[in-house]
Amino acid sequence: MPTDPADAYLATGTRVAIRHFRRQDREEFTRRARESVRLHHPWLFPPTDAGGFGAYVSKLEEPSREGFVIVELETGGLAGFISLSNIVQGAFQCGSMGYGAFAHAAGRGLFGEGFGLVLRYAFGELGLHRLEVNIQPANESSVKVAKRHGFRLEGYSPDFLHIDGAWRDHERWALTSDMPGAAGSGAAGDAASR
Which of 11, 137, 169, 186 could make a disulfide contact with 117, Cβ separation 3.0–4.6 Å? Predict the structure, then answer.
């Protein structure tokens, strides 16, 4: 384990860096998740306690997943999180994204910058060709993030995911490595929430 947190960064931007989740993030992550319940509800339910965090990180350690935290360079604090799941290599080279900003960082552009860094890492280091994100249509903040980074709307999936006690409809958004947003640049540093 590196002694300097900067040694663990996978990519660094102007105001944020990304790195993998660590079990040592538990206290800050769960505190920030509790502070962000109003921002995330009813779309997203990140772990707010130690048990939930341990289970979440264990899933992110599976071979078909990658989990990232967005770290604000000025403070060293967590600004948000992004997960890649269902990663398939070979001929498919695809993964699904899930993401959320923490309330104290929302609207400051930190999440958008970190999102761009994860895109560069996914299409570069991980060698993926395609990333998908499924968003409930009324989740305007998440739709804005996808649009801002060049994702295209590909379809609509009724009763797609079971969230908050019910099957929820989702829009399917995707970005491929040959599209402009794949470089993680463009409007990524503009205002972003989650």
Answer: 11
Is the sign of the CA dihedral 26, 69, 131, 92 positive or negative? negative
143-169 b/e (C-beta count within 10 Å ≥ 16 → b): bbbbebbbbeeeeeeeeeeeeeeeebe
Q: Please give the Cα distance from 84 to 87 (Å, whole number).
A: 7
Amino acid, res. 4: D
Number of Cβ within 10 Å of residue 106's Cβ equals: 20
Q: Residue 143 — left, alpha, or beta (φ > 0 → left; ψ -120 to 50 → alpha)? A: alpha
If DSSP codes are grouped into helix, strand and coil, which group holds residue 3?
coil
Q: Would you say residue 193 has pLDDT above 90?
A: no
How far is residue 147's CA from residue 36's CA, in Å, rounded to a whole number? Answer: 23
Task: Please compute Rg for the chain using Cα positions.
Answer: 16
Note whether 93 and 128 are within 8 A (CB).
yes
Q: Which amino acid is at 154?
A: E
The token duo for 25 is 């993030």
Which DSSP state fits 46?
-
The rounded distance, in Å, linking the Cα atoms of 119 and 180 is 11
